[in-house]
Amino acid sequence: MAKYVPRVLVCGDVEAFRKKIDRPAEVVGQIDFKEKNFTAEDIKNLLENTAEYLIFTDDAELYDYLKKFPKHWQSMSVEGFAKINRDGFFSCDILEFIIALLNREKFSKRVLDFDCFFGKSNFRTKCYLKVELDCIAENLYPIYENVYGKIYRAFEECKFHHFDALILSNERTPEEFIDVLIETDASTEKIFAFVRKNSALESWLAANQNIFAQVKVFKTANGAWCLIEKIMPPADVGVYVVTHKDAKLSALPEGYKFIHAGHALAKKDFGYAGDDTGENISRLNPFLDEVTALYWIWKNTSHTHTGFCHYRRFFTSNMTQKNFDAEKILSAEEILSLLRDYDIIVQNEGFTDRTQLETMILSTGQPDLVRVAERIVRSHLIRTQPDYLDAFDDVINGFIIFPAAVHVTRRNIFNAYCEWLFSFIIEATEEMRDKIEANGKSLGEMGHDYSRVAGFFCERLFTVWLMKNHLRIKELPIMHREDV
User: Fold this and answer.
1) 2 and 47 in contact (C-beta within 8 Å)?
2) Alpha helices in 330-366 (DSSP H)
3) Beta 313-315 vs 478-480: how paired, if at all?
4) Which residues fall within 8 angstroms of residue 68, CB to CB, at 6 or more apart?
5) Superfamily assignment of 92-229 in CATH?
6) Is this model's pTM higher than 0.85 or not?
7) What are the residue boundaries of the structural domains of the chain, listed by start?
8) Per residue in 150-180, pLDDT tens?
9) Which residue, 157, 260, 380, 484, is most buried by CB atoms nearer than 10 A?
């Protein structure tokens, strides 16, 4: 990252100044307040046009100066300057300004302090702030839990979360600023960025305002806070109802669509979109069940909010709803609202009497088949996603999962899950298809209760992926249809 090098006017001995600091600083001059009768206007001009800080090497001179100019917060002792922990230009003017700006915006959710601006500003509580703040910081005193709701060690831990805005306060080149915009693109629509006066970033923003929906510039000490609103696609909900038969529903809510899984091998066509167009793995449906539809959704759609459920299983927000009612299906409006607070909607966790491995053995009646399939899945997981092996073992040998892998989420999260799953499950499935035999029959000849063993593992793998990712999970009940 671009290293912030403050411009300082030394009030006193320059050599004494250099001996007491070990941080970069550009000394732009030396002045003696005893010899000149500076006015407040003189100081203002110096701090706006010449230097960012006035640094005193003599405490007595600083005392005399502060008696005359008590609110000049960019003036300090060399010891204070040496220890100040900042990665960019800072003054109390800036702190007060961003507090007022954030409070005025009246955010309804959370703001991410990307550069830990308030922590580095020595806040101890959030008494002046009306917004809910999270931040990214490797090390902070425990007291900062009173400032921030959540402290992340790295952006990786919150990359799937959505925020009302991000605060960027560190010094950045235009290239570094663009990198942050790309990295956080799915996390927010708004950026609060402090842009230092006469910096390369200031020039870049002035020349490229047209690539954003709006850029508001609020001038403050030695720069400006820029409220940048990105151009975002309109919200588009696409929840696919996976089926292999006539689902017998006259209509679906807005944003819902049927998808015929295994359409490439189907003997009947029910008029639904099939999973065998575009890039697809429809012919693996006898082994993967609805997962072939998941692959098709991933490769052939671009909804901003995506998910899938089954023709017999539908999400509802009605916690007491027991019988299926098409009017109680979770609406697109409810999905968009929930996914402002949460990252993913899933079915309520389910308990099983046996471990997941034992449950699959009981479902198939084929212990050897399940054991061989487990070894194959495990070997491909180790090859492509070794960091997930611990979670895989915990889920397969555990009693609780998120059943059926039904879910709705934002597109970047959906893509991340699919990229992970399909990095190994297709090859694992093909190995099962080609190598597993029993009583002289290949896996595909054993009957659907046996051939779909890879699909059984996929259902558990959804929980494996959730285990290893930082997601705010919203559980909702499922309405089951019994009439199809």
Assistant:
1) no
2) 332-341, 356-364
3) antiparallel
4) none
5) Vaccinia Virus protein VP39 (3.40.50.150)
6) yes
7) 7-83, 92-229, 237-480
8) 999 999 999 999 999 999 999 999 999 999 9
9) 260
